[in-house]
Design goal:
The two termini are 17 Å apart. By secondary structure, the chain is mostly helical. It is built from six helices and no strands. 74% of the residues lie in helices and 0% in strands. It has one domain. This is DUF1440 domain-containing protein. Pfam families: YqhR. Keywords: Membrane, Transmembrane, Transmembrane helix. InterPro entries: YqhR (IPR024563).
Length: 168
């Protein structure tokens, strides 16, 4: 019965991790949109998801931001799952910061040739670089710290539970 309970806790942490990924996608995708509309950044998630592949007039409207925000929320499941399986037992915020920085390098240094609406890093202004880098750091930190916190909490709870069983 204890093994089944342990698997349920792992499943619960995975579900919470997936939820954290979706919330991070919605929250930081919304911040990306805000930064784009306030001219802190030349790009938003719609630049990657919509504007790089479609040229219709609606892609320049707010509807493109909303459509791509939904896609970002779904795509954010992937970093959450990767973090869950690779770094959930690491402590502190630095694994999340590392993940955010790694994702920024992936999207702004390695992948721009695949996104026609995203300028190369050499052609971006410093405001865009600073804004997007900070957004990705916060995104990674949010996902990482949330998953680590949940994982640590479950370990502490199961440790206390096993101690109580020994005491009884």
């Amino acid at each position: 019965m204890s093994n089944k309970n342990g698997q349920e806790k792992k499943s619960s942490i995975l579900k919470k991790s997936l939820f954290a990924g979706v919330i991070a996608g919605l929250l930081f995708g919304s911040l990306s949109t805000l930064g784009y509309y306030l001219s802190f950044s030349e790009v938003s998630h719609a630049s990657f998801i919509v504007r790089s592949y479609f040229t219709e007039p609606w892609t320049q409207d707010f509807i493109a931001e909303l459509v791509s925000l939904g896609v970002v929320a779904i795509i954010s499941l992937l970093p959450a799952v990767i973090y869950y399986f690779t770094m959930r037992n690491l402590h502190g915020i630095f694994p999340g910061v590392f993940m955010g920085a790694l994702l920024w390098v992936l999207f702004f240094v390695l992948l721009p040739p695949f996104f026609s609406a995203v300028p190369s890093i050499q052609n971006m202004n410093s405001d865009t670089i600073a804004t997007t880098f900070c957004q990705f750091i916060l995104y990674g930190t949010f996902i990482g710290f949330t998953i680590t916190y949940e994982s640590h909490g479950e370990r502490v709870q199961s440790s206390k539970h096993s101690q109580n069983e020994v005491d009884v």
